[in-house]
Amino acid sequence: MQSILPRSIPVLGRQGLSGKAMLSTVTHGPGLFGMAMPPGFNAKTAQLATLKSRERGPPSSIDGRLAKTMPPGFKAQVANLDTFKLPERVTGTAGDVKLGQALVGAWRQDGIVQIAMSDKHISLWQDAKLASRRFFRKQHSEKAVCVDSQSYAGYIASGEEVTDGIADYSEIFTITKDLDLSDPRVRAKWPCHGPCPWPDVDMKEPMVRYNESLGAEGEKLLQLAELGLEVSPGSLTRYTRDGWHHTRVLRFPPRNATNGKGKEGRGIGSHTDYGLLVISAQDDVGGLFVRRPDQRERFANWEKSAAGLKEDDDGWIYIPPVEGVHTVILGDMMQYLTNDFLTATPHKVGLNTRERFALAYFHEPSFQAVLKPLDKVSGGMRLGRGKEQEGIHYGTHFTNMFMRNYPDRVTTKRLIAEDRYRLLSTPEMRTLGAAPAS
User: Fold this and answer.
1) What gap in Å lies between CA 352 and CA 287, rounded to an integer?
2) Strand-pair category, 246-252 with 162-163
3) pLDDT tens-digit readout, 64-88
4) Is the pLDDT of residue 45 over 90?
5) pLDDT at position 295, please?
6) pLDDT at 67
7) Alpha-carbon span 353 to 265, nearest angstrom
8) Number of other CB atoms surrounding residue 3 within 10 Å
9) Residue 348: what pLDDT?
10) Do 362 and 247 form a contact (C-beta atoms < 8 A)?
């Protein structure tokens, strides 16, 4: 697929910055396209958007091309996001500060940012996508053996994952920290710790290379977020030492070729993700929808499940596929750390008329991290003082979420049968803690 955004469009980065997205309301199929100015647009921003639209071509033609990739049966605004370019290194320059502020502003405005891939990232993504296609083309019997009873890594069949009590149609290979059976944490039966059951080296090598590059990108984004939030260096990155990063390699079947276990047209139900950042790439078949931050929609997934949140309501934004970019949304722990100044991004996936491939990398705190809110950042929802002092143990949050999503998986059954869950409260499981950073 050719890029929706022509190369003449300036890539935003350290010099030119704008975090606003242009939106138009679209019903897939016959209908009208109408521009809808997002809240918070001022005259200067609107003028900038108009200039950019002239460079891109008539808004109606852009909107039409974007809308054509939307899965049938959905009504949503179509986002035409600006693309940010990350520096090679974050050193705290004035340009880095401006970029950090723009990223934070875009997350607060739209719940999602779009990052230009480097040439290296493009090559790594192509290799990973090819490996993904090869894996999912295997016979079910070959894929089904790629499961580990101690970690949640490996194959997840279509209909096995559950969101808000309903089976999802996504077919997944999950990559978690790949730990040998001789690792002390595995031998001690820590929950969720174990090997990644790779099917072969042809799958493992390109995925490991791509994940390593995404890990470096995740650290840069956190450093820029620290600058944008005006908090001390390390306020966020202190929690990602030995981060519990993981990846979901995803295939979605065509909407007319499912196994009938889930809800018609639904690939993955509405939910928020668990950690700090989710960096994703998708092929040219659209499917991703997000909800923009809204003060009227309060949720805290670590206290009460946000699964199914507003899934059938209006207000969703369709994120069309754009060649050569990563999209980045926020997770529960970023919301918790910033006291709702930044909020986790509710999102869902619809099934399209063709099969769709995507990859989502989760840049996470350490499994052993105990996170506590940043004192100098607040979106207006301050927690009770006792809760702030107690903090959130990320390993417990991660385990809770995976047990909820995979109640019948062998990993969940073994975790319960061997009473591994109780280990989450032990002191050795909580060795990466910190006082609230300022």
Assistant:
1) 7
2) unpaired
3) 777 899 999 999 999 989 899 999 9
4) no
5) 86
6) 82
7) 10
8) 13
9) 98
10) yes
pLDDT value at residue 58: 35
Q: How far apart are CA 87 and CA 74, in angstroms?
A: 37
Mean pLDDT, the chain, whole residue set? 85
Q: Does pLDDT of 392 surpass 90?
A: yes
Mean pLDDT of 217-226: 98
Percent of the chain with pLDDT over 90: 78
Single-letter amino acid code for the residue at 317: I
**What is the predicted pLDDT for the residue at 209?**
98
Residue 41 has pLDDT above 50, yes or no: no
- Judge contact between 69 and 285, C-beta under 8 A: yes
Compute the average pLDDT of residues 100-115.
97
3-state secondary structure the chain: CCCCCCCCCCCECCCCCCCCCEEEEEECCCCCCEECCCCCCCHHHHHHHHHHHHHHCCHHHHHHHHHCCCCCCCEEEEEECCEECCCCCCCCCHHHHHHHHHHHHHHHHHCEEEEECCHHHHHHHHHHHHHHHHHHCCCHHHHHCCECCCCCCEEECCCCCEECCEECCCEEEEECCECCCCCHHHHCCCCCCECCCCCCHHHHHHHHHHHHHHHHHHHHHHHHHHHHHCCCCCCCHHHHCCECCEEEEEEECCCCCCCCCCCCCEEEEEECCCCCEEEEEECCCCCEEEECCCCCCCCCCCCCCCCCCCCCCCCEEEECCCCCEEEEEECHHHHHHCCCCCCCCCEEEECCCCCEEEEEEEECCECCEEECCCCCCCCCCCCCHHHHHHCEEHHHHHHHHHHHHCCCCHHHHHHHHCCHHHHHHCHHHCCEECCCCC
Are 269 and 166 a contacting pair, CB within 8 Å?
yes
pLDDT above 60: residue 25: no
Backbone angles phi, psi at 420, to 5 degrees: -75, -25
Helix H or strand E segment including 219: helix 201-229
| Residues 6+ away with beta carbon under 8 Å from 416 | none
Task: Check if the beta carbon of residue 188 is closer than 8 Å to that of residue 230.
Answer: no
> Does the structure show a pLDDT above 80 at 317?
yes
* Residue that is written with structure tokens 């460079």 in the block: 55
